[in-house]
Design brief:
Layout lengths: L2 H33 L8 H16 L9 H15 L17 H12 L4 H8 L3 H16 L11
Helix pairs in contact: 1-2, 1-3, 1-4, 2-3, 4-6, 5-6
Length: 154
C-alpha cells in the first residue's frame, strides 16, 4: 500500500471516528427504540443493529461526497432494521415495544428523527399515505395503552 493511500485511510478513519463520537449516542437511542429494548438496560440487539449500520456507512465513507453522514447512517440503520424486522416482532418492553416493527420504524423516523413522511415513504417503498396511516395508528396505540401495561413508561 502506497504512502498516499495509507494517509487517505488514516484521514478516513479520523473523520469517521469524529463522526461516530458525535452521532453514535443518538443513533443507539434510535436503534433501541426500533428494537423495542427497555431503556436503561443492556440493548444487545440495538447495539448489533447500530454496529452493522456504522460498518455499512464506513464502507461508503469515500463515496459520500457532500452527503450528510448522519443521514446515511440513519438510512442504513432503518434498512437494517427493516431487513431483520422478523427478529424484532416479539415485544421486549421499552416505550415502543408493543408496536409492530413497521410502526416502530415509521414512528422513530418520523417523530424521533424528524424525517419527512415523503422521505420515509421513498425509503420504505410505501405510499406517503400509508406512512401517515402507520404513524397515526402507532401514536393511537401508544395513547390507548393501559396505564398498568408498562409501569416503566412515563
Amino acid at each position: 500500500m502506497g504512502e498516499r493511500q495509507q494517509e487517505r485511510e488514516r484521514r478516513r478513519a479520523r473523520e469517521f471516528a469524529a463522526f461516530t463520537a458525535g452521532a453514535a449516542g443518538r443513533l443507539l437511542h434510535a436503534a433501541a427504540l426500533l428494537t423495542g429494548e427497555p431503556a436503561g438496560q443492556p440493548a444487545p440487539a440495538a447495539e448489533e443493529l447500530l454496529i452493522e449500520a456504522l460498518a455499512r456507512t464506513y464502507a461508503a465513507w469515500e463515496r459520500l461526497r457532500g452527503e450528510d453522514p448522519y443521514e446515511r447512517a440513519r438510512r442504513e440503520l432503518a434498512a437494517g432494521f427493516a431487513q431483520a424486522a422478523r427478529r424484532h416482532r416479539r415485544p421486549r418492553g421499552g416505550p415502543l415495544g408493543r408496536l409492530v416493527p413497521r410502526e416502530r420504524l415509521v414512528l422513530v423516523l418520523r417523530l424521533h428523527e424528524d424525517v419527512p413522511e415523503e422521505q420515509i415513504a421513498a425509503q420504505l417503498g410505501l405510499p406517503a399515505e400509508r406512512v401517515r396511516t402507520l404513524c397515526r395508528h402507532a401514536v393511537s396505540a401508544l395513547r390507548n395503552r393501559r396505564p398498568d401495561a408498562n409501569p416503566a413508561l412515563p
